Amino acid sequence: MKSSPNQHIHLIGICGTAMATLAAMLKERAYRVSGSDQNVYPPMSLFLQEHGIPVASPFSKENLIPKPDLVVVGNAISRGNVELEATLNERIPFTSSAELMKEAFVQGKHSVVVTGTHGKTTTTSLVAWILTCAGLDPTFMAGGIAQNFQSSFRLGSGEIFVGEGDEYDTAFFDKTPKFLHYLPTSVIINNIEFDHADIYASLDEIEQQFRRLVNLIPENGLLLAGAESETVVRVAQKAFCTVQTFGIGDFFWSARRLDLVPGPAGTAAGGAGGGSFDVQREGETVARVSAPLAGQHNVRNMVAAFALASNLGVPAQAIADALGRFAGVKRRLELLGIFGGVFLFDDFAHHPTAVRETLAGLRSQHPDLPLYVAFEPRSATSRRKVFQDDFAHSLSLADTVLVSALFDPSKIEENERLDPLRVAAHLRQLGRAAEVFRSSDEIVEYLGRHVSPPAVLVVMSNGGFGGINPKLCDMLSRKFGPAAKPTEATGLRNQP
Predict the structure, then answer these.
(1) CATH number at residue 62
(2) By Cβ atoms counted within 10 A, which residue in 254, 265, 313, 449 is the most buried?
(3) Residues near 108 by beta carbon (within 8 Å), at least 6 away in sequence
(4) CA 473 vs CA 46, 396, 464, 467: distances in Å
(5) Tens-digit pLDDT profile for residues 84-142
(6) Are 175 and 229 found together in one domain?
């Protein structure tokens, strides 16, 4: 696909992370780009604004005037959407974000696909950062804004593409996972668990999609398999390429001698701490890594990124140095501020395992501080009762849990909905304080009455959560003074 300043591309559902990232990449390639969405909120709304991409809201057939040359249909867009219906009626050419990403940015490159149920965005950003520091100048796209780049993408001149591979389906006309479009040469599979209960009925169905991905890797390619996941091990057995395992334990690539201790509030991780560990290759230590990312789940992410970069020829010490300067990803345990001793974090976790790992990391870094969680069941899976008990157990790592009402419950069949009242009751049975609230304003008001320094407060949602973060920042700054922010690690802003 050749760039042309005269070609107009319109994206329906542009505020999804992948869609917004694609829009900005196209804009840098000199396409005329526009988009529309129903729910517009940070950080992607600000990201699009910074890139000068107009966003219309709500959806309307008027948004397709003048008629674009191509429409990209987001995977959240279904038949009945007024813009999709207009696109079909007017015979406007259309495609999916994954297919256009392949055509415009992946073809002809060594494609590194980073996937798995958890850790995709962080690991993608880690790989991109290491390769950039090593001078390989990769192109990358991630499902979140990497702090070192202040962007979710970068267009490099090198021969490597690093992409976050999503197992969610591609579009209303293509129900296969997006990661099947990315022409994989090297693949990282961090882990595989049941997720996306709106489109998959079982773990077996998800496993089958990962098998299809592995079957696309060429013989001279590479599969890095998170071997602490039994499902990943099964999937890797069918690979035709080289397979290397990784994890915390006795694997081809291993993290050993972990020293995960509380870090100073001035680290890049913003008081989430970090730690050190050895990276071993076939039992031989190749580097000692000290990095500002909290939790064992991030150790696994870093080992995967280390292994990938090493296989691409980056020296071990150069990888370790880059990991030490990694500044994290927005909304992945992102410190929003420290207000007189109250640490306020924002986190994207919306699966019980991610919730548990994130809270375990915070608990290990701040073992003596009261831990408050404001949790919004918002994703298609977290709004369903399939994980109702699991959420209670994961959230019980906090001292106090504030559960919001379901986001847009009308989208979920009544007999399938998670019940926040039952989650809160289960938490109280587990010895934790728990309440249910109708709105973000009620949660902010509650915290204003109950939180006092020192304390840790984390907001967990994969959406806007009623604008709760700025409301909390305002409340905490009025009560305890302006936020003190950590010193950011050395970064590299996105370059055209």
Answers:
(1) 3.40.50.720
(2) 254
(3) none
(4) 18, 25, 15, 11
(5) 999 999 999 999 999 999 999 999 999 999 999 889 999 999 999 999 999 999 999 99
(6) yes
Query: Same domain for 235 and 316?
Result: yes
Q: Angle, nearest 10°, between helix axes 352-365 and 296-311?
A: 100
* Tally of structural domains, the chain: 3
The sign one gets for the Cα dihedral 144, 150, 155, 157 is negative
Contact (Cβ atoms closer than 8 angstroms) between residue 130 and residue 324:
no
Band of residue 262 on the pLDDT scale cut at 50, 70, 90: low
Q: Please indicate, yes or no, whether residues 145 and 236 belong to a single structural domain of this protein.
A: yes
Within 8 A by CB and 6+ apart from 129, the residues are 146, 148, 149, 322, 325, 326
Q: Is 114 helix (H, G, I), strand (E, B) or coil?
A: strand
289 and 146 belong to one structural domain: yes
The secondary structure of 246-307 as a DSSP string is EESSSSSEEEEEEE--PPPTTSTTTTS--EEEEEEETTEEEEEEEES--SHHHHHHHHHHHH
Q: Which of 113, 124, 187, 117 is nearest to 154 (CA)?
A: 124
CATH of the domain at 228: 3.40.1190.10
SS3 355: helix
Q: State how far Cα 309 lies from the chain centre.
A: 20
Residue 290 in domain = yes
The verdict on residue 492 lying in a domain is: no
Describe the strand order of the beta sheet including 139-146 as a list of residue ranges.
Answer: 151-154, 139-146, 160-164, 110-115, 186-189, 222-226, 242-247, 253-259, 275-281, 284-291
Q: Are residues 172 and 271 in the same domain?
A: yes
Rg (CA), the chain: 22
Helix extents (H) in 215-247: 230-236
Give residue-wise pLDDT tens across range 341-370.
Answer: 999 999 988 889 889 988 988 888 888 999
Domain extent at residue 383: 334-480
377 and 305, same domain (yes or no): no
